[in-house]
Write a structure and sequence with these properties.
single chain, mainly alpha, 5 helices
């Protein structure tokens, strides 16, 4: 068949074939580049949207934590006030104990004043700074808390609960006749 094409004088145009192939390659490369750019843009937009969502969520959670911190500071202030009332009640019967309770109330009130108006970030920084300055106290408090948690857990396990199923009591002194 190829001989016939040569006999007729028809020849295959390789230059046209190469031009056609180059056009197809260029079109495919351009389409691939556009698809890659679109995917890259979509990835950037998704990453930006995720970062915005995480930032919004973080801000929301921090707002809730700051509200809880303020409520906790108020509760500590109320507790200090209750301690002062208890000290007033103790004045007549035990002035020394009343004085001790007032001292605790004053300390608790100072603690409440220090918490009031602080953010979670500030409280975290303060705790971190204290831990750096006084690591022995922090580790000692952690050990005591762990000891009490262990004792509480151990005592909770030793308390037995009543059986769920009723027991069937069959008296042995009855005779079936």
């Amino acid at each position: 068949m190829t001989d016939q094409n040569f006999e007729r004088g028809e020849s295959y145009d390789w230059a046209e074939h190469e031009t056609s192939n180059k056009k197809m390659r260029d079109a495919a490369s351009e389409a691939f580049d556009k698809a890659a750019d679109t995917a890259r843009d979509a990835g950037k937009k998704a990453k930006h949207a995720a970062a915005d969502a995480a930032s919004t969520m973080t801000d929301h959670v921090m707002g809730i934590l700051n509200e809880q911190l303020a409520a906790g500071a108020d509760a500590v202030g109320v507790f200090a006030s209750s301690m002062r009332h208890a000290a007033d009640d103790l004045d007549e019967e035990s002035p020394a104990l009343a004085s001790l309770v007032r001292g605790f109330a004053h300390t608790v009130d100072n603690y409440s004043d220090n918490l009031e108006g602080k953010t979670v970030e500030e409280l975290t920084k303060t705790a971190s700074d204290f831990t750096r300055r006084q690591p022995a106290i922090v580790f000692g408090m952690a050990a005591i808390a762990g000891f009490f948690a262990f004792r509480t857990y151990k005592n909770a396990q030793s308390v037995s609960s009543p059986p769920i199923q009723p027991s069937h009591h069959h008296p042995t002194d009855e005779s079936h006749g």
